[in-house]
């Protein structure tokens, strides 16, 4: 594999969106990894600060472009996540079959690798056939590629976790409103941090412990807001279970599989769709004949809603897993938490939901915990450095002001002494 190629890996708690398995680690090699010939190349002389100015302008333009892409991806993540949640809620009014909807939507994962290959043909200078690209991406699973042993030990379990996460989330929509479901699912990041701290021995951060406490407090307050009714308690338990399984998915991916390129991630997600189709196709049939998820006929199925949910979930997962190629992971995560007020606005105008004080405080508490988890690991050191720079700058400005006033005073003193000598 090329050292220059961008690689992706499971995100840590501070950067992870919902079901992403990707994180751009960088296309450039660090300075210490350069070859001796590259290290000995002298830097071009900086005349009159022109090269520094050009560099700053280039950096600023790059950041602006990344932020613009980030706003677009943020809106896409927010709208696709909100739209899939709202459409699923509408679909359950005519089609009360959450597992069948989960199975149908997960089958659309088949499109990940074909879509990636189309992008590869348009962007890559070295064109490869689908078979060649597939074999290269299979190296992600080991030197022998995707063997039967690797499939059942390192791939199939993640297919189970993926399907279970989506099923619990969709099943919760039958019990509670979409606003509560989207807000409670934001606790996913807190669970990722706790599992990463315990299993992966990630760095301990006090602010993330506070965020985890806020998430748990928000869950309790959300339950209290509904008065501990059976439906609300079950719905909240289902969402919390979905967030927990999602966190387990991400932590296990980082523990077992490590990092992957974009093509490898696309192949992995496509295989998850295959796992869902091969191993779970019998479940909707059993649920239908046992009348657990029963519908009158095929014509009674709201195919528009089902296809809409599937397309929006596919769009959401594409943006979450591959949007970090063009923008910052934090902006993608903000798109998820932004879906909470958007769902609240939709619920306010489309259904009779009372947003009492306790519910609003619970949503704000969970959202605050989510935002605290977006802070970088060295956020405190960066703030200290920023404050130190501001203090140094103020001292330099004060010293420059005193230096400018000094010559004027000395000149006036010399003028006075000369005038006194002239009078004498």
**Sequence of secondary-structure elements:** HHHHHHHHHHHHHHHH
Q: What is the rounded distance between the termini? A: 91 Å
Instruction: Give the low-pLDDT segments.
Output: 1-19, 23-58, 409-424
Largest sheet features? none
The average pLDDT value, as a whole number, equals 77
The fraction of residues assigned to DSSP E strands is: under 5%
Number of strands: 0
Taking Cα atoms only, what radius of gyration do you get, to the nearest Å? 28 Å
Structural class of the helix and strand makeup? mainly alpha
Short description:
The chain has about 425 residues and is mainly alpha-helical. Helix content is about 70%, strand content about 0%.
Written overview of the protein:
- The model is unreliable at 1-19, 23-58 and 409-424 (pLDDT under 50).
- The chain has 16 helices and no strands.
- It has 424 residues and is mainly α.
- The protein is globular and about 90 Å long.
- Helix content is 71%, strand content 0%.
- Helix 2 runs parallel beside helix 14.
- It starts with 35 loop residues before the first helix and ends with a helix.
């Amino acid at each position: 594999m090329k050292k220059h190629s961008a690689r992706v890996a499971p995100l840590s708690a501070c950067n992870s969106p919902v079901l992403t398995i990707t994180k751009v680690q960088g296309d450039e090699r660090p300075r210490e990894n350069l070859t001796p010939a590259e290290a000995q190349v002298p830097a071009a002389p900086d005349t009159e600060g022109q090269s520094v100015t050009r560099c700053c302008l280039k950096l600023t333009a790059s950041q602006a472009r990344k932020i613009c892409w980030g706003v677009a991806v943020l809106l896409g993540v927010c709208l696709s996540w909100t739209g899939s949640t709202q459409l699923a809620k509408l679909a359950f009014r005519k089609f009360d079959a959450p597992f069948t909807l989960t199975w149908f939507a997960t089958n659309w994962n088949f499109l990940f690798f074909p879509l990636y290959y189309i992008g590869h043909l348009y962007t890559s200078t070295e064109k490869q056939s689908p078979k060649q690209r597939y074999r290269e991406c299979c190296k992600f699973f080991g030197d022998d590629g995707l063997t039967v042993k690797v499939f059942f030990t390192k791939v199939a379990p993640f297919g189970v976790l993926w399907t279970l996460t989506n099923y619990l989330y969709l099943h919760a929509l039958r019990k509670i409103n979409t606003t509560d479901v989207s807000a409670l699912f934001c606790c996913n990041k807190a669970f990722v941090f706790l599992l990463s701290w315990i299993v992966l021995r990630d760095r301990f951060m006090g602010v993330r412990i506070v965020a985890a406490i806020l998430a748990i407090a928000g869950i309790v307050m959300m339950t209290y807001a509904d008065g501990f009714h059976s439906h609300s308690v079950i719905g909240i338990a289902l969402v919390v279970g979905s967030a927990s399984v999602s966190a387990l998915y991400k932590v296990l991916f980082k523990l077992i599989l490590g990092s992957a390129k974009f093509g490898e991630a696309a192949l992995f997600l496509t295989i998850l769709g295959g796992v869902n189709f091969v191993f779970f196709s019998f479940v909707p049939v059993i649920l239908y004949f046992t009348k657990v998820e029963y519908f009158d006929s095929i014509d009674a199925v709201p195919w528009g809603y089902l296809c809409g949910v599937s397309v929006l979930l596919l769009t959401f997962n594409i943006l979450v897993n591959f949007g970090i190629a063009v923008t910052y992971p934090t902006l993608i995560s903000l798109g998820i938490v932004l879906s909470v007020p958007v769902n609240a606005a939709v619920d306010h105008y489309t259904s009779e939901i009372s947003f009492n004080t306790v519910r609003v405080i619970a949503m704000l508490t969970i959202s605050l915990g989510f935002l605290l988890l977006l802070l970088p690991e060295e956020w405190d050191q960066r703030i200290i450095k920023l404050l130190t720079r501001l203090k140094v700058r103020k001292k330099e400005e004060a010293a420059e002001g005193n230096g400018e006033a000094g010559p004027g005073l000395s000149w006036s003193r010399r003028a006075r002494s000369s005038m006194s000598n002239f009078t004498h």
